[in-house]
# Entry
Amino acid sequence: MIPKIAVIGEGVIGCTSALQIAKAIPNSRITVLHDKPFEKSCSAGPAGLFRIDYEENTEYGRASFAWFSHLYRTTKGTETGVKLVSGHIQSDNLESLKQQQRAYGDIVYNFRFLDDRERLDMFPEPSKHCIHYTAYASEGNKYVPYLKNLLLEQKVEFKQEEVTSLDTVADGGYDIIVNCAGLYGGKLAGDDDTCYPIRGVILEVDAPWHKHFNYRDFTTFTIPKEHSVVIGSTKQDNRWDLEITDEDRNDILSRYIKLHPGMREPKIVKEWSALRPGRKHVRIEAQKRMASGSGKEYTVVHHYGHGSNGFTLGWGTAIEVTKLVKKALGL
# Structure
């Protein structure tokens, strides 16, 4: 029997899940279902700097870091979007930086706290504390298409269609459904109302001389991409609007220029907004279900709720999802 598997979502979580399943179960028939072009997805814009928000996700991040390291060693960054970048995160809140150290300090390279001389030399209005580290960044507009190309080589099919019911997908002949619907994962699951939008806005500017990431706390930052530098951001819980306003632009630029005056009057080359999939914990769970109309039995594996850490955690969480898929198939 050749198992038929549907993966809902073409973003970084959906493509990562599909790729790991395809590698683990090479005789499976996998279809990725998505409701809109990738360019309009939440995964198309991020610079993808490796950073973990919560210590409970450390091991997922560790697995992802190993994957990025492999890509960096073996494949051109112009293809994968993966590069090595160093930088700093400042904060007056020492505990928040110690939490970062606990979450990923032993995963990234060169993690350390700056001394007073370094802080005062580099930053015009330094925060009281600052960490430095080196890690991988994976540009969404390159990394996810790279994953998609690997999937196409594995004969995975992509279909653009809106999915409103897991039962309907199951009635299409699928034995396993992997729910990677991001912000809408809970609604699609039908048993989870804990997902919420985190509105994010970033500006891409022309600043080829800027080579390091630079953060104040976790909402004011720059991250270099291949052809631009990302300035961000907003992190506004429970806001659904996507239009970028002058208020957004002025807020982001004024905060960052105070941190780094050398970036004043930047040439904005692109703007991007999206709704990140907020949830207290990433959901990784398998459920056996029966389609209400046909009575068909199937398994759904939920894989959503990564917040701002989809690129950092996705490979690691997909490993766990693949284990659940194999178990459901008796493999």
Summary: The mean pLDDT is 96. The chain is about 35% helix and 30% strand. The longest strand covers residues 268-278.
